[in-house]
Structure formats: C-alpha cells, structure tokens
Write a structure and sequence with these properties.
The chain is built from 1 helix and 10 strands; from the N terminus they run αββββββββββ. By secondary structure, the protein is mainly β. A hairpin with a 4-residue loop joins β2 and β3.
Length: 168
C-alpha cells in the first residue's frame, strides 16, 4: 500500500470508530458530517501502519466529541483499522442528544476493537446517561449485543457502583 493510500484511509478509521459508538442507545447522526481531529502533534508510521495524535487531542463529528491526551490508531495490512486507543487524565467521550439521552463516559484509557465492535473503558471508568451512571475499574460495551458489563473497582473493595434514576 502506498503512502498516499494509507494517508487517505486514516480518517475513515476514526469515522468508523465514531459511527459505531453511536449505537449506544442514541439517535443517529449524519456520517456525512466532516470529522475534525485537532492535536498538537501527529505521527503517521507507514511501516508499522499506525497513526498517533498527541497533545490536547479533540475529535468532533456531529454530536460526538472525544477529548484525550493521545489517540492511537492500529491498522491491518489492508489499511483497515483494528484498534483505536484514546488515553487521558481522563479521556472523555460525549454524545449530545435530548436531555435524558446525553451520554458521557470517561476513563484513563478507552479501547475500541473495530471488528468485534467492543468499547472498553479502563481505569477509573465512568458511564453516565441522563441521571443514571455506572462506575468501576473497567466497563465494557458490546455494541453488537447492546450489552454493558462492569468489573469491580479495587479502590471500592471490588465493587461496581450503579445509580439508577427514580421518580423526581
């Protein structure tokens, strides 16, 4: 694969990541909207088939925002993305919808496995939708099965904390 072909495919990898994140119970957004990645630095390694953004990384597309200190993209030999990793103190994912449908999540590390469609939040993980939230050390979203799993937080004696909305 030529250098130009790999460069042309990189935005597609990130768009795939963001499009699949929308499956977490939110209204659809237009994938035709431009993806904007801002960072202090970018490093594209053609030999290793990786892309690395660093320094105040922001990703915007429609109603989705990602904020991280670093964003890594690993690709296959064909140039398709395999894994996306956002790291931060914490890394943040936000999707705006109607008031009770806003999604916000954060973790030290967010990993997305593209083919399996699995999003994993590692380290001080927090997921909030409306007034409900889940916090633990690790939270995993299976986008195909629409399933959320959480593993206990060692700082909370191995427990998962869930707060569910009740009548107001």
């Amino acid at each position: 694969m030529s250098k130009q072909e790999l460069t042309n495919k990189m935005p597609t990898f990130i768009i795939s990541f963001l499009a699949l994140l929308c499956l977490v119970g939110m209204p659809a957004y237009s994938s035709s909207e431009d993806l904007i990645v801002n960072s202090d630095n970018q490093d594209l390694n053609y030999k290793d088939k990786t892309l690395h953004f660093s320094g105040k990384v922001t990703v915007q597309q429609g109603n989705i925002s990602i904020f991280a200190d670093e964003l890594f993209v690993e690709t296959t030999d064909e140039g398709n993305s395999e894994k996306l990793i956002a790291k931060g103190s914490p890394a943040l994912f936000k999707q705006q919808g109607e008031a009770e449908q806003n999604i916000s999540s954060e973790a030290i590390e967010i990993i997305y496995l593209v083919e399996q469609q699995i999003l994993t939040l590692n380290g001080k993980a927090l997921f909030i939708q409306g007034s409900s939230q889940v916090s633990s050390d690790t939270i995993e979203f299976d986008l195909k099965a629409q399933r959320v799993k959480a593993e206990g937080n060692k700082n909370q004696e191995g427990r998962v904390t869930t707060r569910l909305k009740t009548k107001q």
